Amino acid sequence: MNNHLLKSRTLWICVAVLAVIGLIVAVALMWRPAIAPIKRLTSFDTAQLQRGARVVEAGDCAVCHTRPGGEYLAGGLPLVTPFGTLYSTNITPDEQTGIGEWSLPAFERAMREGIARDGHFLYPAFPYVHYRRMSSEDIADAYAYLMSGPAVHAPARQNQMNFPMNIRPLVSFWNLLFLHGEPLTPLAEHSAAWNRGRYLVDGPGHCAGCHSPLNLIGAEKSSQYLQGGSVDGWEAPALVGLGQRATPWNREQLAGYLRADVVDGHGTPAGPMRPVSLSLARLPASEAEAIADYLLSLQNPHAVSETTAQKPPSSPADHSSGALLFSSACAGCHAPAAPMREIDGRPGLQSTSALQAASSRNFLKTVLEGVPAIPGAPGPVMPPFAASLDNAQLGALAAYLREQAKPDQPWADLSSTIEALRQDTK
Amino acid sequence: MSQITLTVNGTAQALELEADMPLLYALRNHLNLNGAKYGCGLGQCGACTVIVDDQPVFACLTPCAGLEGKKIRTVESLGSAEKPGPLQAAFIDKQAAQCGYCIAGMLMRAQSLLERDPHPDEQTILEHMAGNLCRCGTHLRIIEAIKQVAGHNGSLT
Lengths: 426, 157
Hints:
The complex is a heterodimer of chains A (426) and B (157).
Chain A: H1 3-30, H2 46-58, H3 61-65, E1 78-81, E2 84-87, H4 104-113, H5 128-131, H6 136-148, E3 160-161, H7 171-178, H8 192-202, H9 208-211, E4 229-231, E5 234-236, H10 251-258, H11 273-281, H12 285-296, H13 320-334, H14 339-344, H15 353-356, H16 361-369, H17 391-405, H18 414-425
Helix pairs in contact in A: 2-6, 4-6, 8-12, 10-12, 13-17, 17-18
Chain B: E1 2-8, E2 11-17, H1 23-30, E3 49-52, E4 55-58, E5 71-73, H2 86-93, H3 103-116, H4 122-129, H5 139-151
Parallel strand pairs in B: 1-5
Antiparallel strand pairs in B: 1-2, 3-4, 3-5
Helix pairs in contact in B: 2-5
């Protein structure tokens, strides 16, 4: 055998060994076994179901897994992501189209690792990065509650993900980078309420899913924990430094807001936070109070002192058209001494989060979409003004109210933001 | 005062109005279209509901100034006492009115839904109609009337 042949043979062996190793790594990374199906459960422990119902509310399961007008937990809600559109799945105990054949270990694996019973990778829009931090008891209780509900036959809608994210096994690389964290354990130096709040925020409540900024591949930036993100065109405001702001939150206000109350000085949740707060309102009040305890303990590392604010513009803008619009469209509910403020607690607008925020988005979104009525439920209703006000009126109104809330910091780019939001809502 | 041209039920009309005047006042006081009613003036009851460019709006909270060039429709566009439109006929058929004060608004909100979705299911109807209230409590008959139109194949106009 000559040297040349020997060399090329060694080379081939090396290539083959590397290929085998690569294959093993790829399989280990991207293949997960199915977990055997079970027959749908039929008997349940009543106390466990009651606990499970609370876990499911705390986890906001129905907020994504129920589409408007659809059956409870039967999925079908579109989630628009930068990587394409996903549809939430059916988590009723239907055996063909839901999770009726899932055992508790299969359910717990999905909650902690993002793997479906049949072994396919779930997309991280399902917040398993947070659910993995829940206790096994809570996961088991939620499982029992979900399995006890009415089974709805509702096949999953076809996702429209862009290449390459339409290839599910690639999620394994995402998991390699971002899936870590153990179940939360109480920290001895903090109160029981604080620890409960932290558990609800970081575990089932998955607050950081919206309230932390996301990186380019859709994972939360852990270095900017709860420092503000965005969802569905709304700003998810920073949850750090809530007690340090120009219009600070106290515990009672924050706990009330979290339960969808109209809170003096801050208003009421609108947009994507509204269903979340309605879920929290179905839990004992102590849960929202615990969340408030925890959130108010978080300091804003980038708090800017109020004195760094810009100087007011030298020639004050003319806000007469905005003032006129306020008096004809808003004053009945929001003017000082307006009947709806006296009778039903509608907020004055100056100190609301929407008007205090650096971005005009949440104010504009609230005016465009209003706070919709929930059939059969009491609560404040604000009409949508999308068809009642044109872009120029909306801009004039926003500029006028911002002037009252933060005279030294007018909103820039109002008209382009309005244009963009109108495009979104079409 | 400024001159504002409103296009109501297909007719453009130039009016001298205060710019902040709500549409409802212009309809009732300047155009003698008294179908839309003043209820709460706060966007909470829906008695003033009219359609602007296919969307239901509360006329009591909609300033006239931004409405030039938009198509405004009131209950008068649906039919008359002698010749009620299909939705109005269904309301009569189901005896959906008691005092009748909310009915013009109910009709216009329902009309906007049926034009967009001719066969809505009951849940969709309930959610769509949630913004309009009836103090007499005829909601069930109102929903029945809308379902009657949603269920048959006749045209709405």
